[in-house]
Specification:
Elements lengths: L9 E14 H26 L1 H5 L12 H5 L5 H29 L6 H26 L6 H29 L6 H34 L4 H21 L1 H4 L4 E12 L1
Antiparallel strand pairs: 1-2
Length: about 260
Amino acid sequence: MPFQQEHTAMESLRLDSVLLRVDFRLWHTITALLPLGSFLTAVLLGLWLHFESATGTHCGVANYLPSISAAIGGLTPERYIWRTGIALHTAPRYMVTLMYYNFHRNRSATPSVWYQLLYKLTCLLNIVEVSSLVVLTYVSSTENPDIHEVSFISFVVCSEVYMFFTCVLLKWSAYKPMSEQEQQSLRWKSVMFVANVSSFLTSVYFYFRHNWYCEPGVYTMFALCEYIVVVTNIAFHYTAVLDFPTFSVTVGSATVSKNS
């Protein structure tokens, strides 16, 4: 039996004055470009400034691309650029998490207990994902390998499950028939999710193959798969612009009123 809506009254805001208003698409584009730009910059600088140390492997075979840990973990200025990008994008990411929490909560007039549990769990997963990314960024594998490993596993697991649950929620709560905007959002999310999972599993294969056989170029394929995992993760989160096409980030004073 469906549960009743959590709120007996809906709140509405009337803006009295606006000090700042930024289009959400612009806001979220900058948020996405911060980690993407810092990641690409770190990789390119690693190839340019520290090619030998960035691409070196334990068995000395030919490798042409640095792994993510090599590119952003211990080399400077690469790690400072990456850490700056992650630091600047973290607060907006948490904001979007809360936006999605309210987005999913308000899309169903009489949400079932399973729907309520799923959107709350999805919100929690996203918070843990972002937090784990911050921890593994600032605690390198050389400084504290245990914390770095746990945060990396937490990031991967939470990000994959979050993507899947988000697709399920969007399909579950969509208007019937789905609007063109909803179809586009779900389609891109599904593509990015499948690409992300496939690239991650492929990277695991190349990682173990490199460690078992030490073949030239295999670690390069591992690094390339890692890059695809990063880019598809960022692209998945960027699809928020499709879910909030007319939204803006506003700073100002407002009067709150409740409508029963």
